[in-house]
Structures are given as structure tokens and as C-alpha cells.
Design brief:
By secondary structure, the protein is mainly α. The protein contains 10 helices and no strands. The radius of gyration is 18 Å and the shape is globular.
């Protein structure tokens, strides 16, 4: 996550983190559906409008690092020369995301997500958004010359690699296995 530099930015980031931490604690203690936005705001000692200035929805409170993850995935491929390899950096980012999501403390959060249709739906739309951002970065960077379909397929595969690996018995090995397939697919889509 990018560290805010100014005092105001640091204060905003601290407030955002406090709201997210409070929400997650309440959701895990009482159940996601049992906790309302007003309760989260009150427990975090902020106004409801302040909460909504940091998070667009209740679901977004659970996925508070969503924008950071999307930025990191797209950033792994952006701004590269056409002949500069990007897949090792993208693989490292997916490994980091999987490690974040596979920590022992994350298990209760994933159980909560899996039990909630609203959270599962939000996660699915988040993954699609991440894949579209990554596909756009590929098409604008190292994917130049490859079709939009190829860029989207590779991007979706990378994002799904994260989802599949976090559920695997050996997440790191799963990322490596999936990225071998992604690398092979990227190689076959090279312009003739």
C-alpha cells in the first residue's frame, strides 16, 4: 500500500484503516448480516458520511485493500518496453496477494465471505474489475500487438490464479503451476 506523505493524507489513511478494522472486528464477532453501517460508524467513532467518504458500500469494508490490489496488479505490467518481461513481476504480485489472503488470520474472513451471497457477489465483481484493469495495462504496455481477447484472457487467468491458489493446499506451488500455464498461453499469443 502506498504510504501517504502529507499530514492530511496520513490522517485520512488512519481514519480509513480504523473504520475497516472496526468493521471487520464487528462482522467477525456478530456476523456480517447482523451489523449495520451505523453500528460500524458509531464503533469507529466517525459519522456515517465519513464512513461513506472512505467506502462506497458495506461490502467494500471487508475488501478494504481492493484498490491497492488492483493498482499493484496493473502496476506489475504498466510502463514496460515491449521486449521487457512482465510475467515474473506479475507472478510476484499474485504470490503476495495469495500470501495476504492465505494467512491463518484470514481463514475466518474467508469463511464469512463464503457464507454471504452479498460478499461473494462483491468479490466476483471485484475480480472482474481487477482483470479488466490488468487487461487494459497489458494492452497499453507489453501486450501491444496482441489482441484484446488475448490480453483479457491472460488478465483473467492471473486474477483467477489468485482465487484458485488461496484455496489450494500449497498456495505457492499452485501460483507457480498456474503461472506456467499463463506463460505458455502468453507465448502462443505473440504476433507472428
Amino acid at each position: 500500500m502506498t504510504v501517504p506523505t502529507g499530514r492530511r493524507e496520513r490522517k485520512k489513511a488512519a481514519t480509513r484503516q480504523k473504520i475497516a478494522d472496526t468493521a471487520l472486528r464487528l462482522f467477525l464477532e456478530q456476523g456480517y448480516d447482523a451489523v449495520g453501517i451505523r453500528e460500524v460508524a458509531a464503533a469507529a467513532d466517525v459519522a456515517v458520511t465519513t464512513l461513506f467518504s472512505h467506502f462506497a458500500s458495506k461490502e467494500a469494508l471487508v475488501f478494504e485493500r481492493d484498490a491497492d490490489f488492483e493498482h499493484r496488479l496493473a502496476g506489475a505490467v504498466a510502463g514496460r518496453a515491449p521486449d521487457e518481461p512482465f510475467l515474473p513481476d506479475l507472478r510476484r504480485e499474485v504470490h503476495a496477494l495469495v500470501q495476504h489472503c492465505a494467512t491463518p488470520g484470514a481463514a475466518p474472513v474467508w469463511r464469512m465471505i463464503d457464507a454471504s451471497p452479498a460478499l461473494r457477489s462483491y468479490e466476483e465483481s471485484m475480480r472482474l474489475r481487477h482483470a479488466e484493469a490488468l487487461a487494459a495495462a497489458l494492452a497499453a504496455g507489453p501486450g501491444r500487438g496482441r489482441s484484446a481477447t488475448a490480453c483479457r484472457a491472460i488478465a483473467r487467468s492471473a486474477v483467477e490464479a489468485h482465487a484458485l491458489a488461496r484455496q489450494a493446499a500449497d498456495p505457492d506451488a499452485a501460483v507457480d503451476e498456474l503461472f506456467r500455464m499463463i506463460e505458455a498461453a502468453w507465448a502462443v499469443t505473440a504476433p507472428a
